[in-house]
Amino acid sequence: QVQLVESGGGLVQPGGSLRLSCAASGIIFRLYQMGWYRQAPGKQRELVATITNVGSTNYAGSLKGRFTISRDNAKNTVYLQMNSLNAEDTAVYYCRATYTSDYYYWGQGTQVTVSS
What we know:
The chain is built from no helices and eleven strands. It is mostly beta strands. The protein starts with a strand and ends with a strand.
């Protein structure tokens, strides 16, 4: 049974930082591209960042420089470091494990709220 469990979300003040984690089980983690997506209220889910199985990264253009994706294959975990957060970053953040375009899994999401 595949599980992707996100953690690390919460309430943070504008300008603050959070680090999200996604722990995977039931997959051969090192073979999967991992990604973070987010969905704000009333909006479609959007790409935040991805990291390939060999560590190449890709970011949504507007987030590059503030967000950093990384992975630890020994811990079957992918991380998202988020800095200089603002209200527009408020969303549910989802982890995704992708093997092929037809073979992928989603986590349940973790809420990030940026507010004073």
